[in-house]
């Protein structure tokens, strides 16, 4: 058609070349990733996970405005382990008492903390400019899920708030980064090197499993018995 470029025609303008081959490609990848990660199923889950931040705990404790559909998304994904009704009931009590438990955890550290003599002498100006540690955590985004779990764990609240404890454990074990796939690709480069370029897919997959899942305990005797069933010669030798 008139005015259209041939598929194999090179783009001479560097700005147009960057726009087509780089900019549009990045925009397409980013938009695709956003749509995949924040879909109708995952968005409610992310909203429920955000309830375990100290900011939300403080807001619910002060205003008692827990959404009626809170933890419905969490139950939709992890209903095998926790129920939304139990989480809502425990969350209201947990938000009311959380900061009290946090102060009980920090109190021994403050009592046994030794400071320099110069730091112990406080003037009135310094006193007025001091920031409460709780507000500082909220302002600097330190009150994350790991902090909430630490307070819950060190105060032995597992039996008091069992559903909250399970939900926190689930949140802390979610694979939120791409480090595992990156480690797998690093292993792939080590296993399938230049000298092993003709390695078959089955052998490569087996070696990758051995390398990446080496933390799994394997019964060597069971493996040997399994291998002997595939070869009569090996069975006679063993």
From TrEMBL:
Pfam families: Dimer_Tnp_hAT. One of its GO terms (molecular function) is protein dimerization activity. It comes from the Eukaryota. Residues 159-210 form the HAT C-terminal dimerisation domain. Coiled coil: none annotated. This is Uncharacterized protein LOC112681201. It comes from Sipha flava.
């Amino acid at each position: 058609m008139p005015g259209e470029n041939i598929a194999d025609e090179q783009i001479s303008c560097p700005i147009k070349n960057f726009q087509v081959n780089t900019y549009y490609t990045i925009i397409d990848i980013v938009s695709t990733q956003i749509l995949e990660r924040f879909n109708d199923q995952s968005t409610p889950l992310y909203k429920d996970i955000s309830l375990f931040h100290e900011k939300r705990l403080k807001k619910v404790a002060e205003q008692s405005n827990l959404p009626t559909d809170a933890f419905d998304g969490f139950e939709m994904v992890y209903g095998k382990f926790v129920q939304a009704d139990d989480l809502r009931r425990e969350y209201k009590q947990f938000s009311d008492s959380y900061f009290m438990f946090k102060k009980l955890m920090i109190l021994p550290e403050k009592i046994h903390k030794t400071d320099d003599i110069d730091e112990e002498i406080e003037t009135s100006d310094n006193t007025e400019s001091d920031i409460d540690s709780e507000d500082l955590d909220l302002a600097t985004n330190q009150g994350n899920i790991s902090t909430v779990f630490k307070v819950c764990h060190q105060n032995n609240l597992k039996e008091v708030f069992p559903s909250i404890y399970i939900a926190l454990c689930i949140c802390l074990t979610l694979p939120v980064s791409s480090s595992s796939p990156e480690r797998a690709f690093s292993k792939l480069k080590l296993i399938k090197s230049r000298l092993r370029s003709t390695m078959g897919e089955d052998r490569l997959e087996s070696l990758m499993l051995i390398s990446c899942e080496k933390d799994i305990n394997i019964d060597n005797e069971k493996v040997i018995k399994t291998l002997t069933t595939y070869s009569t010669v090996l069975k006679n030798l063993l």
